[in-house]
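Researcher: Here's the sequence for the chain we discussed earlier.
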Amino acid sequence: MNLIFDFGNVLVNFKPLIYLGGLFSDQQLINELNEIIFKSREWLLMDQGILTHKEAIDIFSKRNPEHKKEINVTIKNACDIVTPINETIQLLPEIKKAGHKLYYLSNMQIEIRDYLLENHEYINLFDGGVFSCDVMMIKPSPDIYRYLIKKYDLIPEESIFFDDMEENVAAAELEGIKGILFTSAADVNEFL
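Model: Thanks. This is the structure I predict for it:
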């Protein structure tokens, strides 16, 4: 079997409000920054590799000059948002030992991708994968699933995809991949 993993909230934490709470104490500011940055169209453009962090800082700062300093701090430290989910990561060697192939399929920005590749050794366990910023496509677009399938010559019916977002799981299933909505490492353990 091919096991395909999303990164955010599957292999690494992606919790913007908790991250912002570690940077700032004012709850109103935290909520505003969450809307300005993490719920923006530009965040998706960064995931697509169309915008860099520097370009996004400029756009957000022009649009919200009163928060220029906080926007700069938030995005410049954005790699801190992705902390390992050890319960899932610890299962990866077991998956390999059981003879399964490991792949990743994740919406990811260039700067965070680079940080993960440089600082997270477990990525070497994967047989391959696709980060959205490298192909300028994002989940749940069917094209990114098709790209992964074609690139690694995967048989969709022999593949299982773990993602924390229902729309991404549903999109995988439309391409013939069994999708599992990830809630905890127990979901992967159950498969094993």
